[in-house]
Amino acid sequence: MNPEDPRAVRTRQRVLDSTVRLLAERGVEAMTMDAVASTAGISRSTLYRHWPERLRLLIDAVEHLGVQLRDTAPGDPAPGEGLEQELQRVIGQLGTGLRSSRWGAIAGSLAVAAEHDEALAEVYREYVHSRRREVLSALHRAQRSGELADSLDPEWAVSLLAGPIYYHRLVLHQPFDEQQVTEHVSRTVSLLRSTNGTNER
Fold it and tell me: Which residues form the signal peptide (predicted)?
């Protein structure tokens, strides 16, 4: 099978879209290979030619949705972008993703399933860690520039920034709206800066 063949590309796209829809509507446990094949309107043999393993399909579907969300989010850092601007952009992307009916539902389902499946837990951890790395990079740059104190624990700061976003979506089922995310990031950056003896914006 040639993965660059237009028919193969269309089939893979249809399968990924169908898998995302299935995950969002019915959860991780319902995402069986039979269910995906039925939802995508293809045979099981065709599905297995593209994805021999369910876990690989799940990983690709999560990444597929992530690409879609990133394509609709603000882009890379602009030259001269300050700490608060960068965190507003990155945490704003997180808030937008969790407000999405699809990703919000999938994230919750994946978090629950990961409690009982180490392979799924690894998928979930990689998603979370990839978001954490973006925030950590911004914090480390701010420490190197002197905007934040060297004594600040970046891991604690990430939890302070992202924790409430996840809590409101996955526990309270009341995701922050755009204004709430903006206000949360602004207040948190002020708190982080206060450990450096400054509260400048």
Answer: none
